[in-house]
Amino acid sequence: MHPLIAAKAKEKLLLLGNEAIVRGALEGGLRVGAAYPGTPSSEIGNLLFQLQRELPGLYFEFSTNEKVAMEVAAAAAASGLRSLTCMKHVGLNVAADALMTLAYIGVKAGMVIVTADDPSCHSSQNEQDNRYYAKFSGLPMLEPATPEEARQMTAYAFELSEKFELPVLLRTTTRVSHARAVVEVGDLDPYQEETKGRFEKDLRRWVPVPAVARVRHQVLLEKMREAMVLADGSNWNRRYGKGRYGIIVSGVAVNYVLDAVDELDLAEKVQVLRLGFTHPCPAGLIAEFLKECETVLVVEELEPYLEEAARAVAQERGLKTTILGKASGHLPRFFEFDPGQVKEAVARAFGLSYQPPEPPSLTWVPELPPRPPTLCPGCPHRETYQVIKEVLEELGELPETIFPTDIGCYTLGLLPPIQMADYLICMGSSVGTAAGFSVATNQRVVSFIGDSTFFHAGLSPLASAVYNRHRFTLVIMDNETTAMTGHQPVPSQELRPPELEDRPRIDIEAVVRALGVSHVVTINPYRKKEAKEAVRPLLAQKELAVIIAKAPCILYRARVSKK
Amino acid sequence: MEKKRILAVGVGGQGILLFSRILGEVALRAGVPVAMSEVHGMAQRGGVVETNIVLGPVRSPLISKGEADVLVGFEPVETLRALGRANQKTVIISSTDPVIPQIVKDGLATYPDLAEPLARLKETFDKVYLFAGEKLAKEAGTARALNVVALGALAGTGLLPFAKEDFLNAIKTLVKPRFMEANLKAFEAGFAVTAGV
Ligand SMILES: Cc1ncc(C[n+]2csc(CCOP(=O)(O)OP(=O)(O)O)c2C)c(N)n1
Ligand code: SF4
Description:
The complex is a heterodimer.
Chain A: H1 3-6, E1 12-16, H2 17-27, E2 32-35, H3 42-51, E3 59-62, H4 66-78, E4 83-88, H5 89-94, H6 96-105, E5 111-117, H7 131-137, E6 141-142, H8 147-164, E7 168-173, H9 174-177, E8 179-184, H10 203-206, H11 210-232, E9 238-240, E10 245-250, H12 253-263, E11 270-275, E12 277-279, H13 283-292, E13 295-299, H14 305-316, E14 322-324, H15 339-349, H16 380-394, H17 429-440, E15 446-450, H18 451-467, E16 473-478, H19 508-514, E17 519-523, H20 528-539, E18 545-550, H21 554-562
Parallel strand pairs in A: 2-3, 2-4, 4-5, 5-7, 6-7, 10-11, 10-13, 13-14, 15-16, 16-18, 17-18
Antiparallel strand pairs in A: 1-8, 6-12, 9-11
Helix pairs in contact in A: 2-3, 2-8, 4-6, 6-11, 12-15, 13-14, 16-20, 17-18
Chain B: E1 4-11, H1 16-30, E2 34-37, E3 48-55, E4 70-73, H2 76-81, E5 91-95, H3 102-105, H4 115-124, E6 127-131, H5 133-140, H6 146-156, H7 164-174, H8 180-195
Parallel strand pairs in B: 1-4, 4-5, 5-6
Antiparallel strand pairs in B: 1-3, 2-3
Helix pairs in contact in B: 1-6, 1-7, 5-6, 5-8, 6-8
The complex binds thiamine diphosphate and iron/sulfur cluster.
Iron/sulfur cluster (SF4) binds near residues 379, 479, 483 and 555 of chain A.
């Protein structure tokens, strides 16, 4: 049995934040999970995928994108089964259309939406702060600070969700999802048999035509008022210490603040308001706190979400407390924090002296070569780039060609010596922007997309390109897996783990042809001579063409063959 | 116990995550508070990898400028790169076997000559242990045991409140049986680097 489910209540395990979320979800009786992978959320889906084999009554799937995953989880929760979906921060943009209206119609059984944000863009194209999605959609939000809290909050999120019949956002960041710490696990009821829910029809609830939507919006706002009262009294919102100075903090920064209070010896001078239930923002609690403090520092990564809430509270209640944070320049609005930075900000805010430890003089350290992430030695993507590059060079087209790209291992083709990635917005943008460049310029356009990304967001722009007669070449890099995020399955894969043997296979070439693309070839990028010959005619003309470069990721191949 | 902040740095594929897991498991079993922060995803593709491990009464699982008590370097250039997180008293344990970045192989950057910087490293910090980690790992049976050589070296310093047996037991539960013998040898080889000094 997997150690995560073998552990009995009160046992202590050393868990990753994401593992703790899975344990918490199972303790909360999760029945249906669906996700599309994305760092820093990926381990949650990977684990649920693996654990469903051992837990009858647990269903999990990798859906083709976050919106689909959210819809699967929403319908399960509407049918009375506790459900969860998890995604990286930008995944919630993809699912946002579903999210905004799901907030109106709500759920029956508990539903948890994990959004794993990535301050400092460790593995992401931006560092958006998804706490605003809670405010935007009107859904309750919990923000764990540690793996232990992540476990407890996930289990609690199901109850909270059922209380208001609304999905609950569980917002982590990289440093919570990928923190590893001691977690004392709770009770896990056995998963014994397959469980089915039942969907009760209710046209005035589940079908938000305008007449229904107008009513449901008011219902949502009323629930928010009730939820705010709950947030004010929630055990996730705690106070420590005493004094005329105060700190309001949430997320992983809770740890940095509590350490700073210890290390600067401030327990008698500074009160801390630690917030874990952060939407609706506990206005009453914040007001009381502000009333008791002369000066309050708000410590939160990324956007001034709590800081603005505190200012609004102060304005509404006519409080004169000085509120410091981002607006005052004590802390930045970008990147993740580090504990030393928080310690310095605390000291500065309250006029204390603090001398951070200094490294000795390091002027003797020579210039060090950078170590950007690179494609693995022998990676098929490298071969594909080489094939396309040589043919374009031979055609004299290389310098003028625009290479829109997409997100996956192959994005690393932006680095020398390959340098064939010129433009990127988000998943699927390789296809839509190729269309745009082909309309806006006379340059040749050759864009690149991975197999997983193609199923995630490439199908619909390709249909649009066919219909609108756009002129570009799309290279689909079919390495039979979602490599970047840890080798999750793809609907087209031939090379598959044993547990997926019985799934139908969706052939990419057949899909592309069915969408109406007539110039299509599939190549093996390792057979360079043949591959070059096959793609040359497609690159020598400007009609819409699709090249499918098919060769498994070498790490994935090694992993599957080991099983 | 006093708090101890341990920074481990190296390159994707060197087994730093397992190093930290084992160390964390040792602490868990000894009842010492432990928290760590790992890097997953993009950075693992041949990039720089670090884990921050804190033991004792401290909550923040990240180590700031000058705050490391121990710096464990799996690769010499990565050790040098991380020195801003160390202070005079930081104990430095580092392998001296280079891993040449792809960018250097492609002729786009140069890898420095290490003799001089490693000598300066020893002069600058109070306690520095250098060893040929990859060579020791290979002698133990597999180059992949570099992480356990490093663990042995950390254990051998006696800086942590754990017995040698605690480490060996954790290795026995976390390392695959196939690689056990090589890993136990690797641990001893690392241990000898620092314990004898
Ligand atoms: C909306 C969104 N969801 C998820 C991700 C995380 N992510 C980055 S690349 C990728 C998929 C990569 O798979 P594929 O396109 O097959 O390329 P490969 O890595 O296999 O080369 C994912 C899921 C993201 N960046 N944006
Ligand atoms: S993981 Fe696979 S696809 Fe990604 S760089 Fe390595 S070989 Fe290429």
